[in-house]
Design a protein that fits this description.
alpha/beta, 6-stranded parallel β-sheet, 23 strands, 2 domains, Rossmann fold, UDP N-Acetylglucosamine Acyltransferase, domain 1, single chain
């Protein structure tokens, strides 16, 4: 019996990492990718870039399931725009979780979120929709990560942390227990955050 298909929206490096997780999880088969116009017809990890944004309605008539595989660093705007398009078209956006990650049965992971290899989501944690929990990141107990956040490789969110919508947490950064971040914050790579951050604050240590 064939696996249900999933379309990937974005054809860059993050898409390659997502493909690896999808293949390892074994719930879906990659139907193909949607990329930029100049990427159409190329292959990403053995899967064809089938079209660009203009082709989305026709492609979703063939496969009504998708994962946003555009990366996120400086701004969540592109991922937010794509999510709005998918919602308007009624496209299913399942969470994708690596079998090499650990997600507590007492945690919540929202639709469209990807949990990559080695990530840990502990009991009582709540991760919103369309987030990226990158490889070896840690979301500790009772932490809340709102929609459209990217927790980068090896980042540590200690217990009871709150991360506002659209925020970016850099690789190997550490957030103090109970820290509260507003919306669209940026925490730089390798920094230690011991305080709260207001909306749209960039913290580089």
């Amino acid at each position: 019996m064939s696996l249900p298909g999933i379309l990937l929206i974005g054809a860059g490096g993050h898409a390659r990492a997502c493909i690896d997780v999808i293949e390892a999880e074994g719930r879906f088969s990659v139907f193909g990718l949607i990329g930029q116009v100049h990427e159409v017809g190329t292959d990403i990890s053995g899967y064809r870039v089938l079209g660009s944004d203009a082709d989305m309605p026709a492609l979703f008539a063939q496969c009504a399931r998708a994962l946003i595989t555009v990366g996120q660093i400086a701004s969540p705007n592109l991922r937010m725009r794509i999510a709005g398009q998918l919602a308007a078209l009624g496209i299913e956006t399942p969470a994708v979780i690596s079998p090499h990650a650990y997600v507590s049965r007492h945690a919540v992971v929202g639709a469209g979120t990807i949990v990559l290899h080695g990530a840990i989501v502990n009991a009582g944690a709540h991760v919103g929709e369309h987030c990226i929990l990158n490889s070896q990141s840690l979301v500790e107990h009772d932490t809340r990560v709102d929609d459209f956040c990217h927790v980068s490789t090896g980042a540590i969110l200690n217990g009871g942390v709150t991360v506002g919508e659209g925020s970016f947490i850099g690789s190997r950064s550490v957030l103090k227990q109970g820290a509260v971040l507003g919306q669209r914050c940026i925490v730089g790579m390798g920094t230690v955050l011991r305080r709260d951050l207001a909306d749209q604050t960039t913290f580089l240590g």
